Amino acid sequence: MPLDKTYRLVPGTTIFDAEQSAKGYHLNQFCMSLMTAENRASYLADERAYLDAWPLREEQKQALLDRDLNAAMREGGNIYFLAKWGATLGLSFQQMAGSMTGMTEQEYRDMMVHGGRSVEGNRIDHAVLEAAHADRTPPAEHATVTAAVFTSHVPAIGAAIDHGKTEEPYWRPVFEGYEYAKQWETENLPDVVFLVYNDHATAFDQSIVPTFVLGTGAAYPAADEGYGPRPVPGIDGHPELAAHIAHSLIRDDFDLTLVNEMSVDHGLTVPLSLMFGDVQAWPCKVIPFHVNVVQYPVPSGDRCFRLGRALRRAIESYDRPLKVQVWGTGGMSHQLQGPRAGLINRRWDNAFLDRLIEDPAGLAQVPHLEYVEEAGSEGIELVMWLIARGAMADIDGSGEIEVKHRFYHVPASNTAVGHLILENHPRAETPAEKE
């Protein structure tokens, strides 16, 4: 079913949702620039020149030049951001609010003194609301989750690719394990990859430690992790689908941090290189999804699995016929710190792959302690694979999965490497269901 956005019908009200945020991103960032005295002075000295230095649409610039807050909000502005612009012009909040209602500042102040605007006459018209609910029919076309890809994202793999070492005896077995995957991707190319990974103290340092981060931006550059950025293409996002997913997952009670700008490290770029090879541009859009598995507490396997189920509902309620793959990355067993550094557990890793295929719901109940004890402190990354597994059709009984490829190898630098491809095969509708 289409997402419920009847809040847009409340009269005289602009709700700042993900779509509005994307529309007004640069406008609101312009407002944030006015938080320094130097920038405020520069703006007041020549408003037009200052605005022209920002990638704003002409409608956004004109709304500000005309002092038209309603127009600015139609163009994606948010009142809390625009308040910084108003303050730069010396406007009080009551002046700004009054200007949007057609009142003078004094008239608006008098209204507030007498109890404010009445809600009577300012609710959604019942006929409009009923028509909106009656029109909530399933879209004729929608996005589908076609497959899940699971892979390690070892940084040394990226270095081996970038320095032409893939045919060396040490590395050849690793890359041979991905030859099938590259051909399979050529034959099953998605429109969008929803790529689950963890940032490795690159985009997120100790100043902010978000649990789940959804990339809602248009583009993401490769990060410099200390050795210079990898020589790979930048990432093109899919802001529209990302905004839709954000709306759906948050309404499903998954708390997300939405990020429009960030660099992406090896956790995201290495899987792309393994699956698509050396390319001038990535052949599909990518939505980055970061999971904190660095600082405890980290999300449980069960929460990740449930998030994957909600993710599939979100994707398949999007009303465009996109083919989407969900990738779970990280792991397998490895420990990078302390006297146990170098720990590898082949038996546990392969049992994990078995259960991921055959018993994902049971695997989702494995506690953090088992991951750390059996797979090493950094093996906890494997909980991210459960997001991709939860997005498959067999979980809710709407289809079946097919194992297309499975690969395991030790070592790649400090880690074991695991890789799995599962295809979704939706169950055919019965004649009764079609009716």
Describe what this molecule looks like in 3D.
With 435 residues, the protein is α/β, with parallel strands linked by helices. It folds into two domains: 6-134, Protocatechuate 4,5-dioxygenase, Chain A; 144-434, 3-Layer(aba) Sandwich (Protocatechuate 4,5-dioxygenase, Chain B), CATH 3.40.830. The protein is built from 21 helices and ten strands. Strands 6-3-7-2-8-1-10-9 form an eight-stranded mixed sheet, with helices on both faces. It has a two-stranded antiparallel ribbon with strand order 4-5. Helix 2 packs parallel to helix 7 (79-88), helix 8 crosses helix 9 and helix 11 packs across helix 15 (266-276). The longest helix is centred in the last third of the chain and has 16 residues, at 301-316. It comes from Kitasatospora cheerisanensis KCTC 2395. InterPro entries: LigA_sf, PCA_LigA, Xdiol_dOase_LigA, Xdiol_dOase_suB. This is Protocatechuate 3,4-dioxygenase. It holds the Pfam family LigB.
Strand order of the largest sheet: 6-3-7-2-8-1-10-9
Any low-confidence stretches, pLDDT <50, length ≥5? Answer: none
Task: Give the averaged pLDDT, no decimals.
Answer: 95
The fraction of residues assigned to DSSP E strands is 5-15%
Q: Supply the CATH class of the largest domain.
A: Alpha Beta
Briefly note the structural class of the backbone: alpha/beta
CATH superfamily of the largest domain: LigB-like
Oligomer: single chain
Query: Which CATH architecture of the largest domain would you pick?
Result: 3-Layer(aba) Sandwich
**Largest sheet at a glance?**
8 strands, mixed
Q: Bin the helical content.
A: 40-55%
Q: What's the structural domain tally? A: 2
Number of strands: 10
Rg (C-alpha, Å)? 25 Å
- Please report the number of helical segments: 21
Overall geometric form: globular
Report the span from N to C terminus.
Answer: 17 Å
- The CATH topology of the largest domain is Protocatechuate 4,5-dioxygenase, Chain B
Protein name: Protocatechuate 3,4-dioxygenase
Keywords: Dioxygenase, Oxidoreductase
Domain Extradiol ring-cleavage dioxygenase class III enzyme subunit B: 148-417
Domain Extradiol ring-cleavage dioxygenase LigAB LigA subunit: 27-113
